[in-house]
Amino acid sequence: MDLDQSPTHSGDSSGYCRTNSETSGFSEQLTDDFNSCSSETNSPLCWPATARSPFRPTLSRFGAIRRDHKVQKEDELNDQKLTDLELEMMKERFSKLLLGEDMSGSGKGVSTAVTVSNAITNLYVSVFGQHQRLEPLFPDKKRTWKREMACLLSVCDYIVEFVPASQNLQNRLSMEMMITQPRSDIDINLPALIKLDALLIEILDSFQETEFWYDEQGSMSGNLRTKSFQGVPQPQRKEDKWWLPIPCVPAGGLSETAKKHLRQKRDSANQIYKAAMAINSSILSDMTIPHSYIASLPKSGRTSVGDTIYRYMISTSKFLPEYLLDCLNISSEHEALELADRIEASMFTWRQKACSNDPKSSWETVKEHMEGNKNVVLAERAEILLFALKQRFPELAQTTLDTSKIQYNKDVGQAILESYSRVLEGLAFNIVSWIEDVLFVDKSMANQQDEC
User: Which residues, in sequence order, are bridge partners of residue 162?
Assistant: First the structure.
């Protein structure tokens, strides 16, 4: 209802009384009836049935006040119930964090770092798991995400490192002392991730009113949908995601303003996706490689990567990873993930052989001092090939090495940064895919009109 048309009530009693035109017809009757009653019997029983009590406005106000108090108390009780329920939920989740997801309490649960990582992942699934279209989050979902993420990220406030600092005393002497400051990786990456999180929520909120809509009926149509955004032209989307809603546009297509808005948000989400992916890759590279993974590496990198790839990597003077991937003709993401595991295993096998003479040195130091070494060259080319493969398949699942790092990680700070960047990377990727789908449907509609 428009505010200009809503009824207004002034502060005085006139808002609660009849107008003069409504009471003029009863004036004479009221006078006779009141005169016929004595002062002792001048009660509501003597008032005429068709008249209104002169005390009714006051009584109505008192009744409204009572009703307001009653509603207020009911609201307070409901709020208290919601607060108690949320408190119990937070207690339960905090207990699971302390128990390491081992409800028996026997101490056989996973590490705290893995538990926090799983908590962030599960929170993302519960909030965004059913969100599959370009529209704002439900308010309760948004509140849940912000509140619980703030609680999980608050752990980083207590992850600090000691650094030397000088303090001037009153006698003008300087004294060296150790002070605490946020750990460098958290101090750099966490504010950036929080900013990326806010930008993604803002992008979803910008689709409050849209010219397109979604059709829940039917499965994906190969004529209407493109494959998920992969940074390069890709074939049309397969039927592997038939459950996603189908975007629809008007018969005349989207307006130029709507298409411009979609392109701007797509570019923004794409930049966020690249930033989150870069942070995630950086955190994973800093994680310690588990001993179980090192023990599982093959003795020969050639055995792991295969003869075909090995011959190309060692025979050519100018290594072209894109040409090699085209020759391999990878048909599915499952094959791509299997190839990524093999390339990664061979890369670390060659690194181990290159570092065998000086195992305590870092890989960067070994590369600098052993430039041109066969194992160093093969390891570098394997790294380039793996990067190109991930660029071609950006929705690729985590490799065996990444999964092992997350599973055996003991650093809580790294666990928070890795899981937070991973879920933001997934959300940004989904937003880009949804926008690409809408733009493709609009383009298909325009092509159909041109043909007609």
Answer: 180
Residue 27: predicted pLDDT: 43
Predicted TM-score (pTM) of this structure: 0.72
Phi-psi group of 329: left, alpha or beta (phi > 0 → left; psi -120 to 50 → alpha; rest → beta): left
Domain boundary among 56, 83, 108: 108
CA–CA distance from 452 to each of 221, 225, 256, 438, 446 (Å)? 21, 21, 21, 21, 10
Side-chain half-sphere exposure of 376, counting CA atoms within 13 A: 16
What CATH number has the domain bearing residue 388?
Answer: 1.20.58.1310
Flag whether 363 is in a domain. Answer: yes
77 lies in which domain range?
Answer: 70-108
Mean pLDDT of 68-94: 71
Q: Which residues pair with 393 in a beta bridge?
A: none
Angle (deg, nearest 10), helices 112-128 and 400-408: 120
The token duo for 28 is 């004479």
Over residues 359-399, the pLDDT tens digits come to 666 777 777 667 777 888 898 999 999 999 988 888 788 89
